[in-house]
Amino acid sequence: MSSERKHLLKAFGPGILFASTCIGVSHLVQSTRAGADFGYGLVLFIVAALVFKYPFFEFGSRYAAATKKSLLEGYLNEGKWVLWIYFLLSLGSMFTVTAAVTFVTAGMLNNLTGLTVDPAWVSGGILLFCVLILAVGKYSLLDSLLKIVGTVLLVSTLVAFIAAVVKGRATPIEGFIPKELAERNSIIFVIALMGWMPTAVDLSTWNSLWAIERMKQTGYRPKLKEILFDFKFGYWVTAILAICFLTLGANVMYGSGVELSGNSTVFADQVVTLFTDALGGWSYLIIATAAFSTMFSTTITVVDGFGRAMGETVRLLFFKEAGVRTTYTWMMATVAIVSFFFILLLSSNLKDLVDLATTLSFVIAPVIAFINYKVIMSNQIEAEFRPRPWLKNLAIIGLIFLTVFALIYMAVYFNLIDLNF
After folding, report:
1. Is 146 helix (H, G, I), strand (E, B) or coil?
2. Residue 318, Cβ neighbours under 10 Å: how many?
3. Cα–Cα distances in angstroms (integers) from residue 73 to residues 63, 99, 146, 241, in the given order
4. What is the widest separation between alpha-carbon atoms in the chain?
5. Of 100, 67, 96, 87, nearest to 368 (Cα)?
6. 3-state secondary structure labels for all residues of 79-106
7. Among residues 300, 38, 346, 339, which one has the least CA distance to residue 193?
């Protein structure tokens, strides 16, 4: 094996963690719902979110490559108030995000095992297990195993996608009335869909934290192109799968008269059935196992990511003398406990919980995106590591895109726009 390939493998990893975070609620839930409710009508919104949010995620990896530090330290270097903004905005979204991801995972587990236990309490067990695994530092082994099963879902999704395309779209039932995109609830869903496509912008700090952690593990300081290759691999895998899940929803469920359930266990069965309708009933157990494993991988990655990001934020703001591992463990436990209470309060309807989490993520996205842009264009970054003109221009367009849709959401939510036309 050439030295260049060895170095690339040493840098490889954070992009897979990023993909594990993304291929969860945004794909299994939101992309599938988009196809089931609107057919192919929302493809452009998904593509737009993927394109215009791209620079702000890459900036996290780019900053780590340039400085060998996390993006959170970049925020602090711009001014303590910048890190405070990130801290306060994250407090407003991290519990709903973790709750939504875990609740979907609980539904997948109930569906796989046939359990009839309340998904809210199953969620509590999953969160406790995640915290214990991460606290004893055994995540690396577990993550390796989950990547294998995640590969099964990746292959299964691509095969099911091809089968669904070859089979063609199902004939709508008689009297089927398509949903109107100009309706209030439809606009709110579109905002929610883009909020986590491929994931929340504030999670861009995780890319830098994972890249730094990878450097510590391997003892190798990768070049910019190696870190970016790893990130881009994970990002575009999530992009392809988002379109695949929308296609499954559009070809199998759109016009069928079947509504995706707000019950997490029933919803899990509906998602797995999408695959079996395309592949055959023999695949149900394989898909159910892969779907649960993928969602569990997302859950444990989210708990780890918020633990790292908020633990480091708290350390930089309040406890600079504290150990990184100490603040990480305490924040991870806090995220799990508070998220569990959110689940108990909001678990009556899966779709409402997911829409709340994804919408909050989109509303705060313009602020985080601007901060990332400000940091990456600052004097902290040497000229060779700053984005090229096309990426800089895409980031500016992305800022406008995120801001406009956040304002549209606020106007629709508070009934400032008349939709009766």
Report:
1. helix
2. 10
3. 10, 27, 31, 33
4. 67
5. 87
6. CHHHHHHHHHHHHCCHHHHHHHHHHHHH
7. 38
Looking at the structure, give the CATH architecture of the domain made up of residues 3-413.
Up-down Bundle (1.20)
Which region holds residue 415: left if phi is over 0, alpha if psi is between -120 and 50, else beta?
left
Rounded to an integer, the average pLDDT of 64-76 is: 93
Contacts of 373 (CB under 8 A, 6+ apart): 55, 56, 59, 395, 396, 399
Q: Give me the helices (H) in 220-283, please.
A: 224-248, 264-279
| Res. 1 pLDDT band, cuts 50 70 90 | low
From the CB of residue 106, how many other CB atoms can be counted at a distance below 10 Å? 32
Whole-angstrom CA distances from 347 to 109, 158, 185, 265, 343 are: 16, 31, 20, 12, 5
As a whole number of angstroms, the distance between CA 260 and CA 178 comes to 15
How does pLDDT run across 366-382, given as a tens digit for each residue?
999 999 999 999 999 99
Find out whether 368 and 415 touch, Cβ atoms under 8 Å: no
Closest CA to 97 of 367, 368, 296, 335: 335
pTM of the full predicted structure? Answer: 0.88
Phi, psi of 346 (to 5 degrees): -120, 10
Please check whether residue 323 is in contact with residue 107, taking contact to mean a CB–CB distance below 8 angstroms.
no
Query: Is 50 exceeded by the pLDDT of residue 421?
Result: no
**pLDDT per position as a tens digit, 89-126:** 888 788 888 988 899 899 999 998 988 888 899 999 99
Q: How far apart are the first and last CA of the chain?
A: 63
Cβ atoms 395, 365 nearer than 8 A: no
> Which of 12, 411, 19 minimizes the C-alpha distance to 220?
12
b/e burial code for range 151-183 (CB count within 10 A of at least 16 → b): ebbbebbeebbebbeeeeeeeeeeeeeeeeeee
What single string gives the DSSP state of each residue in 364-375? HHHHHHHHHHHH
Where are the chain's structural domains? 3-413
Sign of CA dihedral 189, 191, 194, 199: negative
Residue carrying the six token digits 């919803």:
267
Q: What angle do CA 374, 377, 379 make, to 5 degrees?
A: 105
The residue count of the chain comes to 421
